[in-house]
Amino acid sequence: MEKVIIENGFFAREADPRSEIDRALLEKAEPGQERIFEELDEAAKERMSLYMDEMARATPIISRPKAYERDLFNRYVNLCSTMFVLTRWKLVRPIGPISEELMPMVREMKRLREKLVPLHDPEEDLWYIWGEHMPHESTAQEADWRFAFDGPDFRPFLIPYLPEDQSAVKGNIVIVSGGKYEWRSNRWEGYEAVHRFNELGYNCFLLQRRVAPYVPLDGAMDLQRSIRFLRAKAGEYGIGAIDRIAVNGYSGGGMCICDMLAYCYAQSMPNEHCPDYVPDAIDSLSGKADAALILYAAPQGDEVSEKMKANPSLPPVFLTVGQKDFLELDKGSAALYLALRDLTPTELHIFAETGHGFGVGSCEDVSVPDRPVEGILKNAAVWPELANTFLKNRFGLEKSFVPKSEN
Fold it and tell me: All domains of the chain, ordered by start, with CATH?
């Protein structure tokens, strides 16, 4: 079947012949018709309006975790993330009209949102990384934003998590959550990761990068800019150990790191990709990462990995993935390890019986959406400690080999 687009006034999607609704629409289509308008009844229109309104209200809130009471905030983010996966990012089938079965979740989202009261101005927690202008390789501003994760006024920012004693921190980690290139899966990858690495003695900065309709290169430029931003603002914000900056990405966030290492070298400038952008003083600083922690992510073709190999400032790389990753990223991670092992210190960990999206080991099984189960993946939960040792070795904080007499 040739690709057919179904639209209904709220959004457009690719038709799926496995869907009963879509099959019925396709049977009514004229031969060769490329776009089909789907007429929604009044009840479906009302459901879609409520859903679209609630998701639009959710995105700014779930990107500002420090402004809300943690337990209630986590409940809200869990529900929003599950809803997003079920409706916008479904890997099995494209989204169709919101069914009546999903409406209790929409109503619960609204109930929790109305209970969330900011403890302070949420903007106080955000460090916007670009000035008045930011480079963008894409034509995102001309896109239809109705079904995007963010709105057209979104600007990338960092959320800082700084231990009180900056003289004791081991280094700094810019964390990039997954969600492919379409959304930001902060709940189990971003928010849990910053707390875990804070416990291990690191400053953490959660990057809220640009996602679709922006293109991957835009997110890579956000990550490079974050490193430069921290170097530029270290004195003003009292950031310790600024000579040690690592990046840590999960799934799509890990691919954001790969893209940065492939296309945004340490001294490369944004206007090399976006000629209309005028670099500022921050762009003149080094965008080099001192280490990269990449989880369940690997280039899906030769171009990115070959450009990574050509990077003259390639950092040490730590790779972690599950044996049962449904995207078979265990194979991709192994291939990336082999590609990089002779170019930079590289470490690879593959955890048995572990799938995709395990974050720092604490995660949630959302296979039954209305009864999610939180838990710990015992084997994969050890990787932050392994990464801590890797970083201390690479940062020169401890030796890789300690003679028995000194142990």
Answer: 1-39 (no CATH), 50-120 (no CATH), 126-406 (3.40.50.1820)
